[in-house]
Amino acid sequence: MANEPSDPLPLEAPMFILENGEMYRNPTEVKMSQIVLPCHANYCGELSAGQLLKWMDSTACLSAERHAGCSCITASVDDIHFETTIGVGQVVNITAKVNRAFTSSMEVGILVSCEDLFSDRQWKVCHAFATFVARRTETGKVQLKQVIPHTQAEQMEYSLAAERRRMRLIHAEIINDLLSSCSSQTVSECLDYQDAVPAERTRVESVELVLPPHANHQVSTFGGQIMAWMENVATISASRLCNAHPTLRSIDMFHFRGPSHIGDRLVLKAIVNNAFKKSMEVGVCAEAYQGGEPLRHINTAFMTFEVLDNDRKPCTLPRIRPEPVHGKRRFQEAIARKKIRLDRKYIISCKQSEVPLSVPWDPSNQMYLSYNNVSALKMLAARTNWVITSEKNKVSLYTLEENQMLCFKVETHVAVAAEQVFLLLSDLRRRKAWDHHYQECEVITDSNEDDTIYRVVTPSVTKGGKVQDFILLASRRRPCDSGDPYLIALRSVTLPAYPPTEDYNRGEVLCAGFSIWEEENSFTKISYYNQATPGVLPYISTDIAGLSSSFYCTFASCSAFLEENKDSLASLPTCSL
């Protein structure tokens, strides 16, 4: 019986009403609905994860091809977390649509939900992002048309797609950096356990002959079919460790490294890399060959399994003893990937309201904190229900109250090029020249060219009280395409070397920053956003209440600062560039 969450997902309406009253449906949207039959199910009467992966890949591919107007192939799939299972007799609803197109690749968002026909309830199963590449035509490489977002949700996904693409490009670099810092102490400890299961016992190797039913309409092996075969051998491997039926919980981000075709022999290998207390990681490799040719590497994936008891709670798993040759490396790499999974799940995937105000920063999670920082600002900027509170000399103050959280936006225009504005505002140390709230500002850490951590001191919010200090991560992004803004995102982080002290009240920033848009004739629109926290709200509350217009004075000073310094970029500190 499938486990059903307590918070059902409402059935989605296929059409939207735009502000102009027109009915709208995303032209790239493709939907698939499948009733789960016994032939689709595993031993527990639940939909096989491999079958679900095939349906997901097929739906996403059709969406990509609808946008591209030509054949497309699966290039990669981001992390997939399966929240629930699906039982026989229930309906799988899959919706896929292109979030953003780049030169020849595009990101497709995939939402999978389960529907119970008897109760008319529907709930989320998983949400995934896949990258598809348009295949070359006879005339050469395909140049994809741009996606034009029409709704707030589409604008948000369009904006976030650029940041997710950046994360995909540096994913291997993050893994390598984390692996290089791993210790081998855990491996030695595991070898001492006498009851540990030898990893060799979990090894599985299987071969599949690619036949026409396994191929897509491009006569290449269907990407979803390869994923299904990989899931099958991974499940067998996991079963050999625990002598029970495991449940697939997540699949790490993976890339298809090469094509496979009809007639290929696909060799699939799986082994348990590491067993944690309640979960295990299984590594799977797919290689192809024809005749006497050498093996071609098609794909490698890492899947996380759990074993559930009668109450659907994870069971404790036996320990594993790594193989003597490459086993220790795989064992240690699995620990590093678990760390990355946790960072990605709780830093990237959380709703902004679920992320703690201040997140610990360290080199292993800096990329994910940077992603979360920029993504939060993009999500705030994509909101369309801002209400103007006051306006003075073309400086506008907007507010947005939602989910018991107050946000504000200040917007103005300057006669300075957007790139110059970006460079001048990027270094927070220069902000005290125009913002009286910034009394002191120092650089703590220059993480890389895009991220810097500052300590900022601001005035006391009460007369005679302590001054406040903030530890802020500043993440900078240049436009991905010509229609994108420059971004400077700010959020609080914690550093062990800079704990709160008695002399200062430690303030926190959840989400703040600048969105800088290039307009005509070297005019630039600057939008400053802040998701007000107790440490920030006192500085702006009188403006929001209409009792003051200090926001105008601050941004008038900002405009003057930009005008005066637009020709002095050569003297900017290195960290601001």
From TrEMBL:
<keyword id="KW-0496">Mitochondrion</keyword>
<comment type="function">
    <text>Has an acyl-CoA thioesterase activity with a preference for the long chain fatty acyl-CoA thioesters hexadecanoyl-CoA/palmitoyl-CoA and tetradecanoyl-CoA/myristoyl-CoA which are the main substrates in the mitochondrial beta-oxidation pathway.</text>
</comment>
<dbReference type="InterPro" id="IPR040170">
    <property type="entry name" value="Cytosol_ACT"/>
</dbReference>
<keyword id="KW-0963">Cytoplasm</keyword>
<keyword id="KW-0677">Repeat</keyword>
<dbReference type="InterPro" id="IPR033120">
    <property type="entry name" value="HOTDOG_ACOT"/>
</dbReference>
<keyword id="KW-0378">Hydrolase</keyword>
<feature type="domain" description="HotDog ACOT-type">
    <location>
        <begin position="26"/>
        <end position="138"/>
    </location>
</feature>
<feature type="domain" description="HotDog ACOT-type">
    <location>
        <begin position="200"/>
        <end position="311"/>
    </location>
</feature>
<dbReference type="Pfam" id="PF01852">
    <property type="entry name" value="START"/>
</dbReference>
<comment type="pathway">
    <text>Lipid metabolism; fatty acid metabolism.</text>
</comment>
<dbReference type="GO" id="GO:0052816">
    <property type="term" value="F:long-chain fatty acyl-CoA hydrolase activity"/>
</dbReference>
<keyword id="KW-0443">Lipid metabolism</keyword>
<dbReference type="GO" id="GO:0008289">
    <property type="term" value="F:lipid binding"/>
</dbReference>
<feature type="domain" description="START">
    <location>
        <begin position="386"/>
        <end position="555"/>
    </location>
</feature>
<keyword id="KW-0597">Phosphoprotein</keyword>
<dbReference type="GO" id="GO:0005829">
    <property type="term" value="C:cytosol"/>
</dbReference>
<protein>
    <recommendedName>
        <fullName>Acyl-coenzyme A thioesterase 11</fullName>
        <ecNumber>3.1.2.2</ecNumber>
    </recommendedName>
</protein>
<keyword id="KW-0276">Fatty acid metabolism</keyword>
<dbReference type="GO" id="GO:0052689">
    <property type="term" value="F:carboxylic ester hydrolase activity"/>
</dbReference>
<dbReference type="InterPro" id="IPR029069">
    <property type="entry name" value="HotDog_dom_sf"/>
</dbReference>
<dbReference type="InterPro" id="IPR002913">
    <property type="entry name" value="START_lipid-bd_dom"/>
</dbReference>
<dbReference type="Pfam" id="PF03061">
    <property type="entry name" value="4HBT"/>
</dbReference>
<dbReference type="GO" id="GO:0005759">
    <property type="term" value="C:mitochondrial matrix"/>
</dbReference>
<keyword id="KW-0809">Transit peptide</keyword>
<dbReference type="InterPro" id="IPR023393">
    <property type="entry name" value="START-like_dom_sf"/>
</dbReference>
<dbReference type="GO" id="GO:0006637">
    <property type="term" value="P:acyl-CoA metabolic process"/>
</dbReference>
<dbReference type="InterPro" id="IPR006683">
    <property type="entry name" value="Thioestr_dom"/>
</dbReference>
<keyword id="KW-0719">Serine esterase</keyword>
<dbReference type="GO" id="GO:0006631">
    <property type="term" value="P:fatty acid metabolic process"/>
</dbReference>
